[in-house]
Write a structure and sequence with these properties.
single chain; alpha+beta; nine-stranded antiparallel beta sheet; 7 helices; 28% helix; 21% strand
């Protein structure tokens, strides 16, 4: 099994001048001044409380959060990826963000080393459609002006011939199925560390609750998901796949899927979302609080530092977004029980 006798030699490749380039891209994406809401994943589909239950990991993955079995409070946010509120029937990236509380140990971000949170962010696609953060930023900014602007941005970066490869990757990342978000698998899509290992994570549904009557309207995904969790708990198995080699499991190219035949999935934990009424007074208070939080893969133990150029770009962009939004500091995050009375 890959990695058991010793971790393969993965490495990051950081070109000269990258830091300044990523800083400029972040400023372009976030803009200047204060923001009302998140620049991406603006629409919340559900904000819930949960437990993150760590099981016994394989020996080589017993680092950081997964060093030993344990159970932690968590916040969970399901979202749509656009930078504005749109109908759930519009194809979009769908996300799952998890903030785990009570996690001791040194954190990555300077000034937040003593924070007790660990975040994981995931989407429905096992890959990220852009290798170059500049292409992602240009297309994200262009999306605010409409489809023709997006096409122009794609042509700028990939040219007429590259367009036929880029558009399918982009379309695969956009969910249009209207399938229940309680039944979907979510992937980090880009790698992170578990100690010396480089891994990707996924959240795979377990014990899927029975369906609820179909709903329509612009918030159909959100309404359906909240109806499910009102009636039944949700559960996701948290699994990791290890880096094998640069050709099959690249660190810097997130457009390449790490095939399961090369990098089998290993169970590490369970995300348990208890049945809860989001429309209740306590549920509304929790949702309002989650809107003020920031979910960032760099809110992480040093043992779980994010890897690759897309993650490095996120570090800069999320820092600017947190400042622009005035989000709650990671040093001040409250437990769900403190919000629900």
């Amino acid at each position: 099994m890959p990695g058991v006798s010793g971790p393969p030699a993965w490495r990051e490749v950081i070109p000269e001048g990258e830091a300044a380039r990523l800083e400029a891209l972040a400023k372009r994406l976030i803009g200047r001044g204060k923001r009302d809401g998140r620049p991406l994943h603006h629409k919340t589909l559900a904000a819930l409380h949960a437990r993150f239950e760590v099981t016994e990991a394989p020996r080589d993955l017993r680092h950081g959060l997964f060093a030993e079995p344990g159970s932690y409070d968590a916040f969970v946010r399901f979202s749509s990826g656009a930078g504005r509120v749109r109908s759930d029937r519009v194809p979009d990236v769908r996300g799952l963000a998890v903030k785990i509380l009570g996690v001791t140990g040194r954190k990555v971000i300077p000034g937040l080393e003593t924070a007790t949170t660990q975040d994981f962010l995931a989407i429905l696609s096992p890959t990220f459609p852009f290798k170059d953060p500049a292409a992602f930023v240009d297309i994200a900014v262009a999306s605010r002006r409409g489809k023709l602007a997006v096409l122009g941005a794609v042509l700028k970066h990939y040219g007429p011939l590259g367009l036929f490869g880029a558009l399918p990757r982009l379309q695969r990342a956009m969910d249009s199925s209207m399938r229940s978000l309680a039944e979907r698998t979510y992937f980090t899509a880009v790698p992170l560390r578990i100690g010396p290992q480089a891994v990707k994570l996924r959240f795979r549904p377990m014990d899927v609750p029975p369906p609820v009557p179909p709903v329509g309207g612009p918030d159909a995904l959100a309404v359906e998901l909240l109806a499910r969790v009102r009636a039944s708990p949700l559960s996701f198995r948290v699994e990791a796949q290890r880096f094998v080699d640069e050709s099959r499991t690249p660190i810097e190219d997130p457009t390449v899927e790490w095939a399961e035949r090369d990098a089998p999935w290993i169970a590490l934990a369970r995300l348990a979302i208890p049945a809860q009424a989001a429309e209740s007074r306590a549920g509304r208070a929790l949702a309002a609080y989650v809107e003020r939080l920031s979910f960032d893969p760099w809110h992480a133990l040093v043992e779980h530092r994010p890897l690759g150029v897309v993650m490095r770009a996120r570090a800069v962009a999320y820092k600017h977004a947190v400042i622009a939004r005035g989000a709650i500091s990671e040093l001040e995050v409250k437990a769900p029980s403190a919000l629900m009375g």
